[in-house]
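Subgroup meeting minutes
Present: P.N., E.W., G.H.
Scribe: E.W.

1. P.N. recapped why we're keeping a running log of single-chain structure predictions: easier to compare across weeks, and new members can see raw inputs and outputs side by side.
2. G.H. added today's entry (146 aa).
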Amino acid sequence: MKKTYLYTFLGITLNAIENSMTIVTNLGSILWPASIVNMMHAFGWTMCASIFTEGIVISFLTMILERRMSWKQWRKELIFLTPYSVLMQAFATVWRWWGIDKLDFIPRFGVDIFGLLISFTGLAMYSECAWCFHPHDALSSCLKSR
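Output recorded in log:
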């Protein structure tokens, strides 16, 4: 069981490291992190606040669509959202400090592609553990089953 928690947290961390990298390059991101950027700009929020708030809203939307209130699932999504949102903000700050957002197009493009590949690795890790998920993953599963 300890390995499950370790791999889940490692997967969340990898996902946050690389999703924040794709956001900072501003060249393309996975759908959900891209929506975070829109919220950040629209509301003037931090990345952390945007991720956490959107995650909570999506979690409740999923429960409404499934027509059942699963507080156990909601707690697990909260367990995911808390470190994920904080780590996304922290790593985005690091990437900007390193100047990734100021690189020329070709190196930035390479960083973006690398970020996408590693992000999928993190997603695979925490999905395989099946202990907690991002609320968007639960929403996607809900929509697929309809």
